[in-house]
């Protein structure tokens, strides 16, 4: 068998794997990306939202389908909270295939190699390297690397093979792409209610000439129902079904969303990134922004350890500790989500929406609210709005003092 040597092998050619590869390759490390599929960006993996900071990191505005500057959020009974100002873009709706491809192309231009239709099937750890067996279209190949990086998604082969645990929670979701939705360009729509997305919310995201319609929840909330049944309820039987009457489906995706950063994202000669590490926002399910942020936080120290080949568990644990602040932030965001949404009945949600719909509260949301970081807004609401102290008292300790 042929033998190849790399400083790092990254499993997964999504945006997280591509961004990591670019950072390492730019610093003259020899990098290989393994992608099990025959093309990048397929199958379609998420809602396709990229926050401004993450977009600035890669400069791929040419992949944008629609700038998102606001939202229309509906209570179970139809109370509307409409937020946002057109002059301030909150996030970007991108073509995920073009975005993913472009991020990976940046890594290749920086010097990384990529093997498509290739996946690891075995790891053998040596004193100073890892030997990887890879199933490729041309048979099994072996190569050695200093470290293997798992950026291979919610069902990460690397994480499972290394028995590195599971994220704190896993949401399940379904999304379809449609034409004919009655929406407002630049504003995403969010729908709540136990009949369509118990404990969470359904969404419609404008994406150029189409819209992405999705639901997500957890099995403990939906029982024996499926996400497909919930989506059907939203589009055909809910109070908002008239908005979907002219919709025609042009694509669909079903998948899981892990959230809750693993206790250890590293082990000897192994590091996990993105969904594989549980680095995903518990409030929206978004993974690109926090995934990029994680890499930015640890990359300098990570590169130094790779160069020195100091990749034992103890040495790598030091970069793991650098994301403790991110872990805490996720926990607080989850507490806010639970207080205002997941642990609320439809009746309690209705009371919450009546407060949210007040002009002074909408003003606060527009001034303080950030899709990427809901904690400042949630904390301010709990402190400043008496109704929310009563409604969300169960979360005040977790949010204010965690």
UniProtKB/TrEMBL annotation:
Record-linked Gene3D superfamilies: D-Amino Acid Oxidase, subunit A, domain 2, FAD/NAD(P)-binding domain
GO molecular function, one term: oxidoreductase activity, acting on the CH-CH group of donors, NAD or NADP as acceptor
Pfam families for this protein: FAD_binding_3
Superkingdom of origin: Archaea
Segments forming a coiled coil: none
Residue span, FAD-binding domain: 6-288
Name under which the protein is recorded: Geranylgeranyl reductase family protein
Source organism: uncultured Poseidoniia archaeon
